[in-house]
Known about the structure:
6 strands; 21% helix; 42% strand; globular
Amino acid sequence: MAECEIDLRPGGAFRFVNQGSHGAPPFSGIYREITPPELLVFEAMGAVGKVVLNDTGSETLMTVTIECGSLAQLDQFVKMGVDVGTSQTLDNPRRSC
């Protein structure tokens, strides 16, 4: 992660720039709902994202979804590499921000 800005509160903004993004726009948005410890809802680039944490007993299951308003918007997210970038960030054993 080359840049990471987080204002973690409803109405607060975030901005992430991945290393090697080669001029791609940052992934940025606004937090809409925060319900500790299980729910985070955000808006980014016209889409709504959700991070849900579920305690399974011995582990925590994290589900990340981004709901796009159209197929064209989904294509834009895929071309930007949001899926790959998110996966790489979550798999990074070092602290991202």
